[in-house]
Amino acid sequence: MSTTEDVDEIKQYVDGRYISPHEACWRTFAFPINGRNLAIERLFFHLLGEHQIYFRDADIINQPIVKPSITESMFTSLMECNKKFPKARQLTYNLFVSKFVYVKKDRCWKPRKKRKHYWKTFWISPTTREILYLRIMLIVVKRPLCYADIKIV
C-alpha cells in the first residue's frame, strides 16, 4: 500500500528553475524586477466629437454626459495648451511632447521639467481616410488652436 503525498508543483518549479548570473546579481542588489514603466506612450488624436469615452456599469447612460472625462481629451487639451503657452505654438504634435507633459489628473498639458519621455502616434489604416489625413496633418501643422487650424497649411 503506497502513501499518497501532496505534491507542491509551484514549489518544485521555483526550486528547480535556473537563475542566470545576471538575474542573480540583479536580485542580490535588490533592483526591481517587475513593474517598470514603459518608455514610450501613445499619442491620442481623434476627429471632432469622435474621441473614446469610458464609463462604469453604475453610470446612468440616459443622463446628459458632461463629465470632464467625456467632454475633454488629451488632443483637445493640446489645443487649449496652445492658447495658453506661446512656446507651444512653435511645435508639431510629435515634438510637442518633448517640451510638455500631459497630467491625467488635471486633464491638461504642462511644461516639462524632468526627464525626456518618448511618445508615439497610433498607426492608422489607409482605409480610414479622414483619421489618416488628420494624422498626416498633425506631422506638419504647428500651433493648432482648433480643428479648423489643422486643415490650414
Topology readout:
Elements: H1 9-16, H2 21-28, E1 40-43, H3 68-71, H4 74-84, H5 93-99, E2 100-103, E3 108-111, E4 118-121, H6 129-140, H7 147-150
Parallel strand pairs: 1-4
Antiparallel strand pairs: 2-3
End-to-end distance, in Å?
87 Å
Q: Provide the number of structural domains.
A: 1
Global geometry: elongated
So how many helices?
Answer: 7
Note poorly predicted spans.
none
Helix content: 25-40%
Sheet of most strands: 2 strands, parallel
Query: Within the largest sheet, what's the order of strands?
Result: 1-4
What pattern of helices and strands is seen along the backbone? Answer: HHEHHHEEEHH
Structural class: alpha+beta
* Average pLDDT reading: 78
- Beta-strand fraction estimate: 5-15%
The count of β-strands is: 4
Q: What value does the Rg take, in angstroms?
A: 24 Å
Describe the overall structure.
The radius of gyration is 24 Å and the shape is elongated. It is built from 7 helices and 4 strands. It has 153 residues and is an alpha+beta fold. The chain has a two-stranded parallel sheet with strand order 1-4. It has one domain (40-150).
Explain briefly what this protein structure is:
It is built from seven helices and four strands, in the order ααβαααβββαα.
